[in-house]
Amino acid sequence: MFSTKTLSSLKGMLPPIHQPLPLNQREAQQLLNTLTASFRKNLDREHGWLNDERPTANNDSSEAGTLHPYLRDPYRRPTDRHLRAILSNPLFSYDRSAQQPSPGRSSERDPMDVFNEAVAKGLMTPRGAAGCLLAKRREIVQSPTLSIRQTMAASSAGLRVVQWLRASGLERDLSFITYPMLTVPLLKFMVIEGLDEIAWGWLERLLQGEGPQSMVMHQSPASLVLDSLVRAKSDGASSLNDAYAFILRGEDMFGSTSAFGANFLTTWRHLSWLSTVHAWRRASPSKTLFESFVSVGERLRKPLQIDRAHLDLHHPTRPSHTLAVKFLQNEAMWQRFLHKASPASSARNDGQVANPSAFALRLTSMGLDTVQYLTRNGQSEEAQWVLDLLRTNFSSYFSRYPPNFTEAVTSS
């Protein structure tokens, strides 16, 4: 019985497929370094730098105080950013054993821990992410924290969801924006965490025709993003200056497009409401930003006379009652308003009467602000005339429809 030759005995019969390079250890290391550098340069050339230019000392120093750490990290090469994003993604970094509560602590889990585990298992969806963000915010609001905004910023919940959107590919086509239950709370966290530049990038892509273009809650996706950004910036802020700056930036991005009016009306009117009805909650805004914000409203096609009249009363340096008094003297306006508020025109199908509209509360607020302004400036007779006018027209109205301020603010 003959023994079978081993494969090694055939090596001498076959010519080598690849000839070994005649390099010593130092030369081999130099070749490896050259190939590595060439590979990185090609990736940098294909994918570009973070700001389309190589970082300089001046750029780094000027941006250090404004950019979120996630956007200004020292790993600015595309390869470094790519690897860092992979390693920081919950899909690879989640450690279930490290998240187990200690015996002495409550067994209730952090909503973002639930989020990380679902991402690691590949089970996360936009609806699930929305639920985790809402639960996290509710947890923060109900906690004994002294600052809800600071606690939200420290949670990094928005950053984790953004990382998941990128890793899952949902950010690539912006399809998640059509789910407002996720978009609205996500942008709230992102703005507070200093990640709003990412959202502005989404808005720019939407305006360029990328991503979904169908209406979402009677808004275009671009309008939804802009509205969520402005509301997040104004919510709980001590001043509206930053919110004004946001809407002015949005105006520059939309430019003279035909969609300007449709995309700006809801956002502008909401900020107008905060600037007047809720003006007492915040410090007086910048004169320049306030006037620029008012000028945006002049580009909107829908009549906004009451907004403009009320805003004039709240000008930070030159308040004026002229437009407000003129608006209140308009008998045709009162007739239209009272006719729409009559039981015949406002009754619902179930026989119940609708609550007072935001217009009614806005009209009341502007009237009382006018009385206060006239009284403060020694025009007591004019102030009494306005007060009598409000009493005459609203006495029966509010007796029939008790004001619901929560509903009015929601609809504003």
Could you please describe the fold and organization of this structure?
Helix content is 62%, strand content 0%. Mean pLDDT is 80; it is low at 50-64, 346-356 and 405-409. The longest helix has 23 residues, at 25-47. By secondary structure, it is mostly helical. The chain has 22 helices and no strands. The N and C termini lie far apart (97 Å). Residues 46-76 are annotated as: Disordered. Residues 46-55 have a biased composition (Basic and acidic residues).
Q: Based on CA inertia axes, which overall geometry fits?
A: elongated
Specify the structural class.
mainly alpha
Distance between the termini: 97 Å
Q: Catalogue the unreliable spans.
A: 50-64, 346-356, 405-409
Our count of helices gives: 22
What is the C-alpha radius of gyration, as a whole number of Å? 30 Å
Q: How confident overall, as mean pLDDT?
A: 80
**What portion of residues is helical?**
55-70%
The biggest beta sheet reads: none
Order of helices and strands: HHHHHHHHHHHHHHHHHHHHHH
Number of strands: 0
Q: Estimate what percentage of residues fall within beta strands.
A: under 5%
Observed structural traits:
412 residues; mainly alpha; 22 helices; 0% strand
Write the layout of secondary structure elements.
Elements: H1 25-47, H2 57-63, H3 78-88, H4 90-93, H5 111-120, H6 126-141, H7 148-155, H8 157-168, H9 170-173, H10 180-193, H11 196-207, H12 221-234, H13 241-254, H14 260-276, H15 287-297, H16 305-313, H17 322-328, H18 331-340, H19 343-346, H20 358-376, H21 380-400, H22 405-411
Biased composition (Basic and acidic residues): 46-55
Region (Disordered): 46-76
